[in-house]
Automatic annotation (TrEMBL):
It comes from the Bacteria. Residues 154-318 form the Right handed beta helix domain. Pfam families: Beta_helix (PF13229). SMART domains: PbH1. SUPFAM superfamilies: Pectin lyase-like. Keywords: Repeat, Signal. PROSITE patterns: PROKAR_LIPOPROTEIN. Residues 1-25 form the signal peptide. PANTHER family: F-BOX ONLY PROTEIN, F-BOX ONLY PROTEIN 10. This is Nitrous oxidase accessory protein NosD.
Amino acid sequence: MRFRAVAAILGLCTVLLSGCGSSSAEGHRPDGTGVTIRVPADAPTISAAVSLAQSGDLVLVAPGEYHETVKLDTPHVTLRGEVREKVVLDGQLQRDNGVVVSAPGVAVENLTVRNNTQNGVLVTGSVKAAAGLPGRDGGYDTGDEPIRFLDSFLVSHVTATRNGLYGIYAFSAQNGVIEQSYTSGGADSGIYVGQCKPCRTVVRDNVAELNAVGYEGTNAGGEMYVVGNRFSGNRVGLTADSDHQEKLLPQQDAVVAGNLVAGNQQAATPQQADGGWGIGVGIDGGSGNQVLRNRISGNANAGLVLTAGQDLPPQGNRITEGVFAGNGIDVGWTFPGTTKGSGNCVDSGELHTIPEGLATSATCPVAATAVSPAGTWPAPKPPPGIPFTEVAEPPAQPQFPDASAAGPTQVPAVPAFPDLTKVTVPAATLLADRASVRVP
């Protein structure tokens, strides 16, 4: 469809950028007659195409390098690249974000987003966050802004690399899916889900490597599933943490299942401010989480660390049916301050733990009031990191099926949650064909 056809459908009165807003075309298109707007055939830039789009439309982008921040604020629009590695939104280290989603039901698919000073893809219901207002220490502190959730989103087959905060960032958003994506060079984390309760969000089948942290879930819980991902070759693999910087304390009730969390002590990664290194899974002030049937291996400091976040105790976390191998220690519980944990348990066979004997003294289930024992161990000294701009290029990634021929994606109001009875401990080769870092 050429531009004049799109213009006729939308009732535009002049050329593309003349200022006739999409609101003038509201109600002119019958339900179920979404169109495909092609870039650059029908609109010269992605942003121009998005400004034309109405609910149900597909913005389909041809290969090229695009220097813009794309803001998707119309509900139920699909943004898709024709070729994942050749449709590149490059922020040139001059733009905060590559893609900003602030409307429900939006899908972002099959493209690469890189070189932004903050985020590759940001999905949020927060007006302040969408405006790119940074908070303390690289996150978002939205102050007195009321909590407003974006409701339903999809990020699929996206490569996000060399971004100054997060590769894919869902903040104050619910009912979403992040899947089949690849993140690297995230100076804070590759994938981040924050300030949602209940989240009703699924993070599945992704590869996060060469980030400061592979996945971070802050104040995120309630039907929050992190399943079947490869978090390898970062400085820290995965965290579930509570943080006063964001609302909806504490972090609780997330499921971390069937993931490979391995070899998270890479030196050629961005160095996060808190200096974490060599840790597979970290639970910092989080409660009620299930860490289930993961393979956690080859992490130089510890496979899993449980600790208290400031005044927030970790309570009722269950670490079960996992495979631990080749870690500095397998499981370590440490509470250096006055805040202690309770009701936490481990049931994953014979383990090297600190304090010793957790596999027998804290076997699941335990009483909710049972005080969790704690200890300390010598941690390896982290090596200096590298600038996020110098992280290695991503390897080849799979394409969105029939990207050019498929119509717009219908994002469900609530995602399908995984059946945990079918989740197994993954092989050490999980998603290895999509990763550049080889782990034991």
